[in-house]
Structure formats: C-alpha cells, structure tokens
From TrEMBL:
One of its GO terms (cellular component) is plasma membrane. It comes from the Eukaryota. The keyword Magnesium applies. SUPFAM superfamilies: Calcium ATPase, transmembrane domain M (SSF81665). GO terms for biological process: intracellular calcium ion homeostasis. The gene is RvY_04278-1. It comes from Ramazzottius varieornatus (Water bear). It is a multi-pass membrane protein. It is found in: Endomembrane system. This is Cation-transporting P-type ATPase C-terminal domain-containing protein. One of its GO terms (molecular function) is P-type calcium transporter activity. Residues 2-80 form the Cation-transporting P-type ATPase C-terminal domain. The chain crosses the membrane at residues 26-48, 60-80.
C-alpha cells in the first residue's frame, strides 16, 4: 500500500488524476519500481534478517488489490466536499513557493 500511496501523495493541489505528469520527473517511476522490487525481495528472501516469510501468489494478489484500493479510496475522498479540508490545505500550501515547470 505504501507504494500506491506514494502515487496519491503526488497530488497536493486538489488534482483528480493521480497519474497526470507521472513521467515528467523520470526519477519517480524509476524509484517507484526499485521500491516495489525491494519490497518483494525483502518479503521473499528477507527471512531471518527481516523476520518475514514468503507470501503465496494469493496473498501477493491481496496486497496488490489493497494497494489499488488506496488509489480508489483517494478518488472517493476527493468527492466529499469539505470546506475545512480545502482551507487547511491551502494555508499549508501558501507557505511554499510553486516550482517552475
């Protein structure tokens, strides 16, 4: 879920499309894939070093669907009107200068 939440975390200006501009910064997709591979290696081969046991294909599927579910959950949360959330996020963002594109 952390890997998928990283995609959601890219949206800070009330954007709806979490994939918009995902390849604009080449580091993001490369590091995202490296992070996924690292998760798989730690779980499958980590053994005693990380106190893990390998997952079955069914359990990997469950974790994948939970991750995709976090993308869907973000979209549902965005549909809920919340003036307080909007004001708070804007006040936090006002502290930062926009990046030049």
């Amino acid at each position: 879920m952390t890997s998928f939440n990283l995609i959601n975390a890219r949206c800070i200006h009330n954007e709806v499309n979490v994939f918009k501009g995902i390849f604009k910064n080449l580091y993001f997709p490369v590091l995202w894939v490296i992070m996924i591979i690292t998760h798989v290696v730690v779980v499958e081969v980590g053994g005693m070093a990380f106190s893990t046991t390998p997952l079955t294909l069914e359990r990997w599927a469950v974790t994948f669907f939970f991750g995709v579910g976090s993308l869907l959950w973000y979209q549902l949360i965005r549909l809920i009107p919340n003036k307080r959330r909007k004001d708070r996020s804007l006040s936090i963002l006002a502290r930062f200068e926009p990046l030049d594109d």
